[in-house]
Amino acid sequence: MNTKIFGAASLLLASLVSQAPGQFPDTPLRAPIQDAEVIQPGGKDQPKQPDKEKKPPEKKGETPLSEFIPPVRTREFSTGYIPQMLGDYKGFFAQIRILVTGTQTTTTQTITQTNNPNPKPPLVTTQTTTTTITQVRTILVPYAGYGPFKMAENASPMPVDRVFVIGNYFNGIRDPQNGPIGPSAFTTTFTGIQTKNGSTVQTAVTTTTVLPGTPRVNMNLYREVFGFEKTLLDGRASVELRVPFHQMQGNVDAFGSSSAGDLTIVGKYAFLLNRDTGGVLSGGLAVTAPTGPGIDTIDGRIHSVLLQPWGGFILPIDRFYLHGFHSVVIPTDSRDVTLLFNDVGIGYQLYRGDPGRLLRAIVPTAEIHVTTPLTHRNGTGPIFAPDMVAFTGGVHFGLGRSSTLSFGAATPITGPRTYSVEGLMQFNWRF
Questions:
Q1: Taking residues 192-198, what's their average pLDDT?
Q2: Whole-angstrom Cα distance, residue 3 to residue 5?
Q3: How far apart are CA 91 and CA 386, in angstroms?
């Protein structure tokens, strides 16, 4: 389905761009047609005088969307505009080994019976020892170090000049495969009888082992992202930088963390661009560098560089617009997961105010995000990411001449629920 949408968008955008001038000048495509001269009776050629009482026809209907879409290289957006995609959370999980400490109690009871004509009462002795034991268990824990590496997070296929800040809260991030492991206790008994020095010795050894349970890891993640994007080549290309920080808390203190994440650099180029309508077909490469903490897994420490070639589009349709991203995440470490992302959204320009107003636009939006792991699909590798479809809904508010404030929420709708809900806030300022 995503392939069909992407193909249709490409054909429509190519048609739009083919009708636009090559360099998209600000001047009209052709000079206005002048009124023709007419020959007056009597052989005198006089220019036709304009009718003072006749007024030009008034425009009827709604203003075309092209008048609301600004040129790319401007810090101001117009009354109607096409905001960025909100995105969703794509969490990674790492297989790690943990040691569980328990106790083992051994009770040895010996009964000695004398074999003679006048037997004495049996002699009973009991000895108890308790030792500490450990057991190795393998569990899945969430890993947030990669940060907002996904191309569709707070991004537009259109190159723009902007600075931005993002705040995310992810509730209930948990192991998508396994539930909690309960406590265990088991007992074994060995009995032996032997004759020694004319006496019968009966020995019973009872061993009781108790191991505590392992809870299902359930974490909450707070993430802040700061970044900027700068256009190049007369607005047809841009370079973007994302700098994340995160704090993770949950029911297992040992897995909590607070640190800076991996930096992501995004290159973008608009192959097809129509500045009159805002339509665009673009692509590029995102690179996530291992500047944050890595993670120790069952197969050693992993901290990959992520290479993410991507393509994106915007297709305006009057007050509606479609936009999307399609990308493949390729890690440099084969133990990591290769991922395919397909992200498509639709928005509607519900309100378009005058340029001088504080609130200039209200644009509700809905998005579908499909994640498909291409490697380590069985979940037995050191890094695991499940198949998942998530829904994101939100609203963009255009503020002043160059700011956008966005709010949204996301939740998985199919596949393992790796988290319960995400709340997000994004602020973008064009310069």
A1: 78
A2: 5
A3: 9
pTM of the model: 0.73
Burial zone of 49 (CB within 10 Å; 0-12 exposed, 13-18 middle, 19+ buried): exposed
Q: For residue 211, name the pLDDT band (cuts at 50, 70, 90).
A: confident
**Residue 373, CA distances (Å) to 86, 384, 389 in order:** 22, 9, 12
Contacts of 366 (CB under 8 A, 6+ apart): 345, 346, 347, 391, 392, 393
Q: What is the largest CA-CA distance in the chain?
A: 165
Other beta carbons less than 10 A from residue 255's beta carbon? 17
Torsion over CA: 92, 96, 101, 106 (sign): positive
Q: What is the pLDDT of residue 253?
A: 66
Question: How is residue 428 written in tokens?
Answer: 């973008």
Cα–Cα distance, 203 to 111 (Å, whole number): 6
Token look-up 């198949």 returns: 387
Contact 67, 22 (CB under 8 A): no
Torsions phi, psi for 2 (to 5 deg): -65, -35
Structural domains in the chain plus CATH codes: 98-139+181-211 (no CATH), 147-178+215-430 (2.40.128.130)
Q: Other C-beta atoms within 10 Å of 344: how many?
A: 22
Angle ∠(34,37,41) on CA atoms, nearest 5: 160
Positive or negative, the CA dihedral 43, 47, 51, 55 is positive
Instruction: Supply angle C-alpha 427, 430, 431, rounded to 5.
Output: 140
Is the pLDDT score of 35 beyond 70?
Answer: no
For residues 230 and 238, give the distance between their C-alpha atoms in angstroms, rounded to a whole number: 5
4-37 burial by CB neighbour count: b if 16+ within 10 A, else e?
A: ebbeebbebbeebbeebeeebeeeeeeeeeeeee
